């Protein structure tokens, strides 16, 4: 603000002040500001970007020899009218000397709404669950609440997956397929081309069948030996 800068330059302004007239208690001397003070104030007002009205007010204060204000004057000469306080009206007091009582007639009371019934407002009901409704229905019908019957779980028997195909039978079917294929090739005159290939494949399949048969024979032999041991133990116990 411009007045901060002005307060910081009090020493310079004080040197340019001259007293005129004779002073006294009831007659204060008029302050006359020097040209240097006027120029300094113009520079400060220009730097502070004061409005034309504000600059005119400050220059008038310098010419009149008055004290510089600590706050910037308003930007307009219009004075805001003071708002008048709205006085709340005093409560009306009945004067018992003027007030005349009496019995009201029926028509007067009807006109005042004394016989009107208030509008019915239904009470908001509580939403009941399905189980609560069933319980109330049972009490109304049977006089007591029926216990809830537990639902039975139906167990569905899953079909057991089919057993895996027998590898020995698969090999046997593959051999038969190759033999039929070779017969078809012989019928069309291509038997010599496919006979060595089919013979090699059938030989490999037969070899795998022999291994399976050997394994099964060993397992069968173990089962026979175990059964023979159990039979001997049983015969010894009886004797």
UniProtKB/TrEMBL annotation:
One Pfam family this sequence matches: UPF0193
Positions of region (Disordered): 60-88
Comp. bias intervals (Polar residues): 68-87
Matching InterPro entries: UPF0193 (IPR007914)
PANTHER family: UPF0193 PROTEIN EVG1
Record's protein name: UPF0193 protein EVG1-like
Protein source organism: Biomphalaria glabrata
């Amino acid at each position: 603000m411009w007045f901060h800068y002005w307060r910081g330059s009090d020493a310079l302004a004080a040197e340019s002040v001259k007293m005129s007239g004779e002073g006294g208690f009831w007659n204060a001397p008029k302050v006359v500001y020097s040209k240097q003070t006027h120029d300094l104030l113009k520079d400060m007002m220009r730097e502070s970007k004061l409005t034309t009205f504000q600059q005119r007010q400050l220059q008038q204060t310098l010419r009149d020899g008055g004290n510089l204000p600590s706050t910037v004057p308003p930007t307009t000469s219009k004075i805001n009218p003071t708002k008048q306080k709205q006085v709340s009206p005093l409560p009306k007091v009945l004067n018992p000397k003027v007030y005349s009582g009496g019995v009201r007639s029926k028509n007067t009371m009807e006109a005042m709404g004394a016989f009107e019934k208030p509008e019915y407002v239904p009470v908001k009901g509580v939403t009941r669950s399905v189980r609560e409704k069933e319980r109330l229905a049972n009490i109304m019908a049977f006089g007591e609440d029926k216990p809830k019957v537990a639902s039975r779980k139906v167990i569905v028997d899953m079909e057991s997956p089919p057993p895996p195909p027998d590898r020995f039978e698969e090999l046997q079917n593959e051999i038969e397929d190759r033999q039929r294929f070779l017969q078809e090739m012989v019928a069309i005159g291509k038997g010599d081309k496919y006979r060595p290939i089919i013979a090699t494949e059938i030989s490999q399949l037969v070899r795998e069948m022999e291994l399976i048969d050997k394994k099964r024979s060993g397992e069968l032999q173990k089962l026979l030996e175990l059964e023979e041991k159990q039979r001997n133990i049983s015969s010894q116990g009886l004797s």
